[in-house]
Records
---
Amino acid sequence: MALYTDIEYNRQAKIFVVGAGGIGCELLKNLVLTGFTNLHVIDLDTIDVSNLNRQFLFQRVHVGQSKSKCATSTVKLFNPDVNITTYHESVISPKFNAEFFKQFTVVMNALDNLAARTHVNRMCLAANAPLIESGTGGYQGQVQVIKRGKYECYECNPKKSDRKSYPGCTIRNTPSEPIHCIVWGKHLFNQLFGEPDPDQDVSPDTADPEAVANAGAVAASSEGETTRKSTRQWVEDIQYNPDKILHKMFHDDIKYLLTMDKLWKTRKPPVPLDLSQLKSSSGESSSNGVYALKDQRPWSVEECVHVFRESVNSLAEEYKANGYLTWDKDDKPAMDFVTATANIRASIFSIEQKSRFDVKSMAGYIIPAIATTNAIIAGQIVLEGMKILRGDWDKCTMSILQRRPTNRRKLIVPSPLEKPRQNCYACAEKPEVTVTLNTDTMTVGCFEEKVLKKHLGMVAPDVEIEDGKGTIIISSEEGETEDNNEKFLSHFGIASYTRLKCDDFLQEYELVVNILHSTTLTESRENPVEFKVSGSAAPAPSTAPVPPDAAAVEKSKTLDEITGSKSLTPRKRNREEMEVEDNDDLIVL
């Protein structure tokens, strides 16, 4: 009887699967074989050759096609009666609002992107929809049940975003973060000097369907493994000529990427490197006393090209003498090569460039994707989902997959779910957070990008000063407050104990940010700290704050006239007016 009841629950449930990559493939297969018949699945990504060794729903003929659509067509072979709705889109799109999420019995995450996870968490909180969060990293993984008001949400505890794996098509075609360029640089090192790995190809992904119709897929099927074997052969044929490598990797290959016109409809296209336009640079010698400072700042493109040439010559000699090289962050030529390579690629794709010091600290956090880990985690997701459908909330747990068995010989360790954290800035009844920063040096634009979007996970924030006048310093509507971006927060009278009302209409999320002004945040030149965030309100001053003088009051009254800043009246926003540019690959490897 219990089995029959479970089958009926599964048939009646409406499940939303976010991500059709590593975990997503396993999850869809499990859901269909467990009797779930009403599924929705979303994934922005497309199938790359490197996916085929662990995402078993895909075959060679699928290269270049939508992951969500191909996964759906494959699992329907297991059960033709299953009803699956697919979306080849970003889950952060405004069309997937709270009303959309309310229709689902359970939402199941299979993502590798922190921003997307945060967004889905907030949408489920807004829709009061149960969410099962999951993640893998190498041989480790976990599954967590999230329910508004009952169990802690995804943001109740800080998450580390540096240890993760990255989709091959993102690395090769559409990098959007410095780490993507660093991974590409390490892959190029192995292709040129190390033991080549077919999964670490650095050439443009000809299988990318966003390219030019079926051109990418045709090229991939015709070339087979030739391209992967020819990289080493080619570089040996040109005798490791640095300029020829530069021209191919950063000019010819980039021009080829530009022919994949569909890739650049919502992304800024890359700009090929033109060596003839660069100023000559002799670089800085490590023996002249300047290298220590150079290590702490991003290099210019000219410096990167100079270092690239030197490191290629040095590594080529070592490779010819000793055979395959192994990348080591403590080996100067190897570290210089990746730093220069990553920064040249970053400049081409308009990505923030990093210092050698930063690259060295980031490059050690690249971990493999393991197929069996994905399979185990996907099974746990379904088991937790069935508990929710039965109403057995008290039996739900956080499942933690460990690399090695415990003393009791267990690889999967259940852990009780915690109650929501009272001062969580995502799921508290009235979320508040305190941000300590220097209002004299923090600009409005920096506050929006680094604090609100990157750290607090907002997508389309509006920020209003609680000053009794309804002054809006940040608007989600394009062009309304751009003039404010370069102005410092203090320019608007923002100081300690200023309260900012932040509203993200896309996420249906409101947050009060309490400002604490500090001039002592920067810890060191090597490790500057621009701001600190704590998930609670700022402590009230022990004594009443000193009233502003008459001049300050007058300045506040005439702020718009004096600064030329745009003060906007609060208003409701139309959700359909917002279009989000998508740069996320919503999959898990």
---
Amino acid sequence: MLKVIKIVFGILALAAVLATLGMSIASFITINNQQSIIQSIQDTLNAQFSSVAPPAVTSTVPAAVKTTTALPDDDKTTPFEDTIPEAEPITKDDPRYGAYSGMSQLLSTWMNRSVNPCDDFYAYTCGAGVQGQGMSFDVSDDAITDTLVGVLRQPANSFNNDPLPVRQLKWFYDSCMTKVSPTNAEKAARSKQIFDDLRAANPGFGFPALYPAETTKATPDQLAAFLGYTIGTSGLTTLVDIGVDTDWKDPHNAKGGYAFLVDQPATQFAPTFYTKLYQDYTQDIVNGIFNTINSVGLLLGKDVDQVQAQKDAKDIAQLDYDLAITYSTDETTRRQFARSYNPYSVDGLQKLAPFLNWKTFFNKALTPISKTVDGSFRSIAMEVDKLAMLSADVASGKISSRTLNNYVYLRVLNSNYLPQKGDLITTGYLKNFLRDKRPINRKIRREPKKRDPMEIASDYTKQESSCASATTNYLMWANTRVYVDANYPKEADKKAVREQVLGSWRPPMAIGVK
């Protein structure tokens, strides 16, 4: 039992060190050249890891509650916190000094240490920050973009001796930089073509908001074909989200350690918007959907019944909210990853959630990679109960087929250009809360907002930032190669980083196997 406890504590220590390591690596790479480091920063850093008691603060924690995690009484080992060795001080002549002290300075500008973290942890960690101030990852984002743009600005012939993926990345970036922005008329024509192609590829799948006679309920095959088509052509997921990630229970599987995931609905807004802000802005959301219906009517040259459009807008808004709340699992529960590992074949999914023809759905969605699946194709269903509930409510009619069709059609159309129709002034701000559209399982990079004195000065243009971000999203491995080579041009530099990372692993690993 004692050995098990020690292993558990070792794992917890490893997690804590990895979290710290993630921030230290980012700061080491991106803030290594910061100047004007003052001694007080070193004092702050040492204080964070010192075994000396911190300054007294007002606390509401009852005196009887112990604040250290001790091992069982029958164990003679000291409390767990004493097993962590005291941090070795970093001197000014240490090559890591600038990075660590710079990060400490950045964190110190955000932390309000007069607040008891047990009372208000957010105020403690972020209470001293001011509006517009760049946080650590904002600084890192800016520095990464500076580095990438600096390399990619070089002439094409300077990449002649680089690996093929790096040369392709340069070509991709140059193509992005030389593109000419289309006119609104050209964008409208493209949106119209996208709609026409969508209609042609999905005969019988109605759009009653614009075509009132199209009220026939879609079959499971028609719904699956529509949803799969929107994923395959534009990467847009709605009622069912899919993606590829590491198979964390079977990392050595025959598919290279990867798994195909079937997840809960991908709603219009970010998940936290529904729990924190939605109720305050419901009418604005309805108005925004109403304007979108009219904008689509303008694009297609269709007259819109305004009374019915108002009702449709309310129903669509309610469905989007229900998908986020009723048919999705909260983020706290989802952190328990083991519960989300539910292998299913296509045939198994068909029995679990027959509202879709899953073979049709997968084959349509995977068309761009020429992948064809059969009944044995394996995926991991993340939210089994929610998926079954959604299927039952679609099949029973509890979720109106009219609203369902209007919802998925408008999600597709709203992801493309639409001519302005209606008052967008009062609803435009909602775009700040939209769920990011991205390639499957790829990170969206936030563009830097207001500059802050703490941030590294940058001279790249908005287009350069956008094109550099595109290389991160679409050519991530080649992008990483460019970034690493720019920061560590010599083999000795790369070796030093490897040694630093490996050295950070050794103490927690030693604790875990003690």
---
Amino acid sequence: MNNKKDNSEGLISNSNAWNALKKHAQDDIQKTHLKDLLQDDARCDAMILERNGIILDFSRQRATTQTIEILLSLADASKLREKINAMFGGEHINRTEDRAVLHVALRALKDQIYQVDGSNVVPEVWRVLDKIQSFSEKIRNGEWKGVTGKKLRKVVAIGIGGSFLGPLFVHTALSTDSSCIEKAKGRELRFLANVDPIDVATSLVDLDPEETLVVVVSKTFTTAETMLNARTVRSWLVSKLGEKAVAKHMVAVSTNLKLVKEFGIDPENAFGFWDWVGGRYSVCSAVGILPLALQYGFDVAKEFLEGANSMDDHFKTAPFSENLPVLLGLLSVWNVSFLGYAAKAILPYCQALAKFAPHIQQVDMESNGKGVAIDGTPLPFEAGEMDFGEPGTNGQHSFYQLIHQGRTIPCDFIGFKESQQPIFIPGEQISNHDELMSNFFAQPDALAYGKSAEDLRNEGVPESLVPHKTFSGNRPSLSLFLPVCSPYTVGQLLALYEHRVAVQGFVWGINSFDQWGVELGKVLATKVRRVLAGKRKLDPESVGEKKDPNQMNLQNEGFNRSTARLMSWYLASDLDSKSSHRNRQGICSMFSSNGISNVDTSARDAMKAGAMLREGGEEHGPLQWLAGNKTAAATAEAPAGIKEQLRMKRQLMEAERRRVAKRGKGGMSEAGGRKIGD
């Protein structure tokens, strides 16, 4: 017997406003074309707002002034004002994790008050910001140097998800601003997120360890991908500079000071944040501000925070009819739940915002990708939307075909009055920025109006091409217009979209601040990781022999037939494939040094060392990063540990060469020609 209480009566979809919107969509909007709506000048004027220096034009939405009125009634029915106040008031609105949601406090002015559990957290926030300012200035002016006395001019920030996408977006947006370029002169900021070793290689290529500072971002200091990458980079530093390099060349953004210390980082060089900051909302914490301050100086980071703060104040205080995040959020609810549009395209006509859409993709889809209300009741309506995007005009030559003549996907066009890098070539009719903005202004109208078959016939288009050149139009969009892409406006834009997402969740009645959906795959990956580690413990006598994937019996490990077979083939290819042979001779070879230097350096033992490394366990020692030092002279100049690893690398390569030669003599009719299932 199911004793679960039916809470469906509390769903927003049972409200009068929701039902009024359903009827309005069916009876009025579905019968109306945007080209007709755009003829109403009064309607257009009512749908263009300027607030905080940002112009919002939503006149190309499939909506009337009546639609907006009913949406505002829906906001009232969902108790949107109370929910916003609860968030700003530090209440534990993230019920499933019993946490406050107060990322707005991260950009609060010093005299503002934001309380969590009865305590004002703003002084604590500013203690961290002041510490970031002091530390970043020491790094930038050379007061803090590396272990060899060189200035630390290069920064690698290690983190994943919200610890990566947000800071990368802001860094990319600022990296082409002329004033930021000047402040970052001689410096470089890189990000390492993916556990894929390719990302490690590209993040470290051409870096000098003596000039490199590493920022490890992990609240708990246990995130699997981040910590494996951190250990990898730590070993790269230690192999070149010794153990003392860790304290001078690595800092942390974390709250787990115990694990930070065990890692070798001085806890004094750890920058904290709080459990009321969700990962995807953490760019304004030390997660983003520390690397940004190191690259551009604290003043730039502070200007970014001030821009976000201005949007926070607007969101908190402005009437809903004039509130930019509220209007954007309500329009998204309208498009998703009433018009049936499941996706949204974010189209910044500014190359500096190349990483904006990927960041908002996480903020939105991880927040609102939910199927139940905050009380656990299944939703009887569609919620959440799929976000994607690309800067214009690149996107026009990629996916605009679909949004013009395929699926209807509401679009956000984002443009700037001035370019970060204005160019005007004598003899050209218009500047580069004018050319860009010509497309910014034209595309929304093309989507809205389309082109009819009658227009095409009047132009003399052959009848056989008329169906192919017809544009239905009636495709909604909105436009955001800002002065220039600066630290301040980047902060505004970030907060605008963060609050838009919150509005959607508040109206739908879901919890936008947990992310249980990302957990299951990680749990299953733990089991896969354990099995892979066990299978990688190679028998020294079997090194170089072909392994039969059908003999691995991974179904006995609890995997289904499909996964077991794929994993078997993955493991079997380890010593067999030509690509594996090629990769072992690539730019980066990593081996364990502890406990290996004094053993017999045969090819088998070298292979065993590589297998130990791949297990990823805590028992292996520092990795050695070998970057092509193959000559005798280079070996003679290398430190003792590196010499040993070079010798082991040569042994491995020679063993592989002999094995390939032997196989070649014996015939290779099986190699490369087998089908899955043979």
